Structure of tRNA threonylcarbamoyladenosine biosynthesis protein TsaE:
Amino acid sequence: MKWTINSLEELQEVARKFLEYVGERKIFALYGAMGVGKTTFVKAIGNCAGVTDDISSPTFAIVNEYQTKTGKVIYHFDFYRINTIAEAMDFGYEEYFYGGAPCFIEWPEKIAELLPSDTVGCYFTELPNGSRELEVKL
C-alpha cells in the first residue's frame, strides 16, 4: 500500500488510513532519510490514537512512552545513536517489542536482527516536489 502526502493536513488522514490498514499489528519499522517525516508521522498516529503527551523524537532517550486518553501506551524508538546490537539489548528491547503495545521504530536498520518477524515495514521517501510517499509492507 502506498500513500502520497502533500501537506500536514493530508498526513492526519493518511495516519487514520494507515491504522485501519495495519489492523492489530503492533511493531512498525520506519525507514527513511533524516528529515523525511518519520517523527511527524508518529505524531499524526498519536493524534489518531488519542495520545495526550507531547510527541517528540526520542533520539537521546532511545525510547519515549506516550499515554492515550484511554490509558493505553504507545512506544516510540529512535535507534540512530545505537552503535551495536548489545546496546539495544541492554535496555531490554524484548519487553517493548513483545509486550503487546504498539512500537514505532525509527532507524530500524540499526537493529534489524532484533525485529520480530511480523514487523510492518514503513518506507518514507521525499519526492522531487517536496511531498512525501509512504509505502507500507505487511
Notes: The beta strands are 2-5, 27-31, 63-67, 73-78, 103-106, 120-126, 132-137. The longest helix spans residues 8-22.
